[in-house]
Design goal:
Order of helices and strands: EEEEHEEEHHH
Oligomer: single chain
Radius of gyration: 15 Å
Shape: globular
Strand content: 25-35%
Distance between the termini: 54 Å
Largest sheet: 4 strands, mixed
Structural class: alpha+beta
Strand order of the largest sheet: 4-1-6-5
Helix content: 10-25%
Length: 155
């Protein structure tokens, strides 16, 4: 068995109009999230992992220049039910935050082993639907930025 690394990426995929893509976890029905995933190896750049995870989980292929790395990383406790995937004794994960802005909604090709459904929601609905506090916070930060808040863009 290959252990998961306790270093991951969170990629908030959103449209220029302020809609956010959420995915429902296959292993946890009702758990909605943005694109997430662990680095494959410790020397993998987080930006490469972000791009890989978006492609794997949604089928969306975007150039590296379209991914925006935020000066933000969350460290959180791994749910006890999920710790068996990590080296024994691992209790915390560090998650690096990225965003990917698309001009409009795009069709999503889910990885069925990972997700069962997808939704494009306005940022408030998306944040409220996320089970992860770090994901909710990241969506809230995105919405508060003048560059991404639909009401502010219209001016």
């Amino acid at each position: 068995m290959s252990w998961k690394l306790p270093v991951s990426v969170l990629v908030v995929v959103h449209t220029a109009g302020g809609e956010v893509l959420l995915l429902e976890r296959a292993a946890r029905p009702g758990f909605w999230q943005s694109v997430t995933g662990s680095l494959d190896r410790m020397d993998e750049p987080a930006a490469d992992a972000a791009r890989r995870e978006v492609l794997e989980e949604t089928g969306v292929e975007a150039p590296a220049r379209d991914f925006r790395r935020w000066p933000l990383a969350y460290t959180f406790e791994i749910f006890p039910a999920w710790r068996q995937r990590f080296v024994p004794g691992t209790t915390h994960n560090t998650e690096h935050v990225f965003s990917l802005e698309l001009p409009a909604r795009v069709p999503v090709a889910l990885a069925p082993a990972e997700h069962t459904a997808s939704q494009w929601l306005n940022w408030k609905e998306a944040a409220a639907k996320c089970f992860s506090w770090s994901n909710r916070d990241a969506i809230g930060i995105l919405a508060s930025c003048a560059d991404h808040a639909p009401a502010r863009r219209a001016r």
